Amino acid sequence: MAKKRRTFTREFKAKVALEALKEQLTLSQIAKKYNLHPNQVSAWKSQAKEDLLEIFGTGNENEDQEELISALYEKIGRLEIELDWLKKKSALLRK
């Protein structure tokens, strides 16, 4: 009969990954402590690092947002100029 796969809660994975990130014990020691394979501990550690980068971001969000706002204001200005020009042209055609 096939062995049933174990499933782990998010809390358990986070606990193991946090302990691995602390680097007070080796991956092998952590794996032995929690009855896991060292590759699994390493995978959870890597995933935790990636997720931390997503959570805290790169810090460039404000710069990106400022660039977007600047580009949008520039586009609004161009559209207002075009609208004014079209209004003047349509007024001349009505006369």
Structure, briefly:
The protein is 78% helix and 0% strand.
List the helices and strands and how they pair.
Elements: H1 10-22, H2 27-34, H3 38-56, H4 61-94
Helix pairs in contact: 1-3, 2-3
Can you offer a commentary on this structure?
The structure is a single chain. The protein is mostly helical and about 100 residues long. It has two domains: about 10-55; about 65-95. The chain is rod-shaped and about 90 Å long. It has four helices and no strands. Helix content is about 80%, strand content about 0%.
Using brief descriptors, characterize the structure shown.
78% helix, 2 domains, 0% strand, mainly alpha, 95 residues
* Main sheet specs: none
Cα(first) to Cα(last) distance is 92 Å
Radius of gyration: 29 Å
* Domains, number: 2
In which range does the helix fraction lie?
Answer: over 70%
Topology pattern, helix = H, strand = E: HHHH
Strand-residue proportion: under 5%
Number of strands: 0
Class inferred from helices and paired strands: mainly alpha
Number of helices: 4
Give the uncertain stretches in residue-range form: none
Oligomer: single chain
Overall average residue pLDDT = 89
Overall outline: rod-shaped
